[in-house]
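Re: the 110-residue chain
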Amino acid sequence: MRNSKETGSRSERLACEFLQAQGYKILHRNYFTPYGEADIIAIEGDTTVFVEVKSADNQDPIESVHEGKVRKIRNVALHYMQRLEREIKVRFDVITIVNGQHIRHLKDAF
C-alpha cells in the first residue's frame, strides 16, 4: 500500500504525461509559494495553465477541490504572475485520476 505522498507524486507524473501527450509544455511541478502550491504549471498555446491534480480510489475526487483550495490556487497564480512582471493569459484546470488510471481533464474548472 502506498502512502498519500507516493500516490500524489505518481498521480502528478501521470497528469504531466497526459498533458504532454495533448501538446502541453510542462513549466513547473510542485510550484511552492508562501500562499500554497500549484501541482502543475503548463503552457497550452498562449495560455498558462495551473493544474490541480486529485486522485482517489473508487470515487471521483473532484469534490475535494473546494472553495478554500480554489482561493489558494488563485493566490499562487497571482504570486506567479507578479514574479513574471508581465501579463499572461491564465486558465485553471483540474485533472482527476481514479484508481490510478482513469484520467479526467476538466478545462477551465474554476
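The longest helix spans residues 4-21.
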